[in-house]
């Protein structure tokens, strides 16, 4: 993994840190759990803004492993608001959110209702601004910055979870359950369809034991549909949880599905950020001794092959496990997690079998 830059590990740490607060919302009392969730998301967002600030301060390049131009995004005319760089606004916003919700957690009696209302309006503004920045990246700059996407994701999460403080919002959310379920199902259609298509095409492209640039772009394009589906699922999942927290916090299929979806998100991000940039360089068959001598990077790139199959198997099997949870009757969480572990073990064993079979196809 020496090809992977250290900042990528920071990226995944902040991603996991920002989203891990969800489980506090399940374990602890409803209001307290939501406050902790928001606090964790704010810490993750602050870390992203701080990293971008330090990178720009030291005039370093913000490398984007997915092939986009992060520097074009963070140095564009959309990188400032009221003449101030967005990383400063980001650090200020996330720090304010964190401190505010820490106060709400430990000394809620000191916080007047008007402060809470103002806080919700503040998060609503940040949510709308995040959507604006996403629009600018997608349709104006036509470049994506994975750090900006992570910050936008955490900002959107903070907004959605903050709705739990509004009685009217909860009432509305419970009344649009059918629409939320429809979005949830549509997300799974995109996600499952995308994951299955990527798997099918990946093995089809490997008939010649090589992935070329055009094939890689095809896989990336379909993966974008999968990510769109995952976004729909998470948004509907969180909204559904806010409206039915008391019920879903005790629902084993819902909790098992959420865990599987987190695994999907992390493993898919690993595939996209760590493995995809090297996919055309990874050797999918053994080379002769002479070829190994000529290709100095053979051993290094070969070391990525097994982790690639492993991560892909985890992502694919997790997609289907999460999908099945939509239709499963109530079981204990322990039973479902044991079943999930067994499915992952079978998927990993199958992946290693196919990896070995493919690599030995034309072994010399």
3D structure, described in words:
- The chain is an all-alpha fold and 364 residues long.
- The chain folds into 2 domains: 164 residues, Up-down Bundle (de novo design (two linked rop proteins)), CATH 1.20.1440.130; 199 residues, no CATH class.
- The protein has 16 helices and 2 strands.
- Strand 1 and strand 2 form a beta hairpin.
- Helix 1 packs antiparallel against helix 3, helix 3 runs antiparallel to helix 7 and helix 6 packs antiparallel against helix 7.
- The chain is globular.
- The two termini are 26 Å apart.
- This is Vitamin K epoxide reductase domain-containing protein.
- It holds the Pfam family VKOR.
- Its main location: membrane.
- Keywords: Disulfide bond, Membrane, Oxidoreductase, Quinone, Redox-active center, Transmembrane, Transmembrane helix.
Summarize the structure.
It holds the Pfam family VKOR. It contains 16 helices and 2 strands.
Question: What key phrases describe this protein's structure?
Answer:
de novo design (two linked rop proteins), 364 residues, two-stranded antiparallel ribbon, 76% helix, 16 helices, disulfide bond, oxidoreductase, mainly alpha
